[in-house]
Write the structure tokens for this entry.
Amino acid sequence: MRSIRPALAAASLAVALALTATACQSAGDPKADAKPTASASKGGDSGADEAQLPDDLDGIADRLKEHGIDVDKWKNGEWKNWDKDKWLREAKDFANPVIKGLWSEERKKSAKDPQQTISSKAAAGNEGVTDPEPRPVRAEQERKPYWKYAAPVGKIFFDTPEGTAVCSGTVVKDPRNPGKSNLVWTAGHCVHAGQKGGWYRNIVFTPAYNHKGLSARALESAGPQDKAPYGEFWADWISTSNEWIDGTTAASPDAGSYEYDYAVLHVKPERGNKSLEETIGTALPVDFSSPSPKSVDAMGAWGYPQAPPYDGALMHKCVDRPGRLSLTPSSPTMYRIGCTMTAGSSGGGWFRSTGGGKLALVSNTSIGPAGSNGWLAGPQLGDGAKRVFDTMSEKYGSK
């Protein structure tokens, strides 16, 4: 029974994602079957060539100044200073000034995922709470072009003390700003170092990255329209859980609170003034009901795996029936599915069918097993995740 039902669910889930993206795009664009236009690649109206993101959104300069940081020096390279007193940590201190031209293709190419893994012993969990380890499900490439079948999925690039890094993310609906969402869902470890440090820097989102699905070699000589069909979107505010920042549920000092490993980005285009949802033509709702794994036939994870045997160029997906993974007795269980995607897929959305051919984001990729790539786990999104999301939507959604 297990070998048949997930296969059927996988097919229906993949079709649902395609229909969701295409239907939403068609609703606002009579030429939805055509590739993104040059104006779309700039993130706004044709001719809007100047950056529209304010230099001092919500007091970026003031927040940096409080820590003895000059915003002009920051843009000229001071951001590379990761000294403890310069590494902003608290939720209220997030700052991400736009640095034009920073994200060259060379920097993107060198980006690595801040890999999060746990040992097989830790994954064994508590008897009766952790389900048996799932069999590996081989990741499949998404159909091309991505903008037509999975436009909400993209790559997140950022800087860490160890160098450039990359994760995956998903454009999600903002109920307080219908049709004009600027919200992106990802993992907490893709934006903040947790108990080991502070906020990462120079965080940008590229929806439908490499939408033609070019090989890594072909991508090197491809034009900007192929690499970033909708342009770049800089995070101007981010919210993640206090549990992730403080590591309050971590099983060890070197681990993170993976059960709360989620984050929401509010973004603005580097060029133009259209919202993210208007630019790509679609977004997906978030499901905060934390459905029991036993009640869900299948969940699908989407992302851009970077670590071998993958190279980060192509979007992949896995679909499987979820099980439970418990890391500590006092924390919520996580979802776990079989999947061969590797580092780089972190933060990518997990989806489930909510009926009528519709999908909702229900989790995100957080961790995998150390030394192998047979499964992925993600947090259940309950009341705490909803509070993080609602705060972002209410305070920053309309900006």
